[in-house]
Amino acid sequence: MPVEFRSLLRTEQETRSLGRYLGTLLRAGDWIALRGALGAGKTTLVSGVVEGIHPGTRGRSPTYVLVEIYGDAPRIVHADLFRLASPESYESLALDDLAEGDAVVLVEWADRAEERLPDERLDVELRYLAPDAGSGREIRITPRGDRWEAAASEGAFDRDRWHDVLHPGN
Ligand SMILES: Nc1ncnc2c1ncn2[C@@H]1O[C@H](COP(=O)(O)OP(=O)(O)OP(=O)(O)O)[C@@H](O)[C@H]1O
Ligand SMILES: [Mg+2]
Known about the structure:
Number of helices: 5
Order of helices and strands: EHEHEEHEEEHH
CATH architecture: 3-Layer(aba) Sandwich
Bound molecules: adenosine-5'-triphosphate, magnesium ion
């Protein structure tokens, strides 16, 4: 069983900050698969990642177009599978082609195409702490494959590192 890292994200700002931090870890070829109920904070985290990689670029919610592309070197491919008609239609998004060369790929609603995602990826799940939308969230991160297991063993997801990310200066 891969290790799972957990943390509380008490506010939208904390979700964004953690996203920015994950952005600094990403290298060309990396995939992040995001899961979590409607409104759990997936797009918020992605927009943090986008800011972390290309400061000043704003992430959008690609719910209607399914895929958005931001920036260059690395190009960020942001997919949202919520409206995917079936797991088979995943192929028509051509994410593997878009990912070719210098790109990182972030996939919301990854569970809609579970079997089709690369085995080497960072799994991120967001959960509500309480039923109301304003409640904080819990994030669970599972590194999969050599690349992410190495990042984990180098301490990328250690509690003290996260603490500094979420509460800079204290
Ligand atoms: N840690 C947090 N605590 C409280 N609110 C948060 C937190 N993180 C994000 N939010 C808020 O949750 C709301 C929904 O966020 P977001 O759009 O990112 O969710 P989503 O998972 O992408 O939703 P969808 O399933 O529709 O794609 C936003 O209003 C955002 O500000
Ligand atoms: Mg979203």
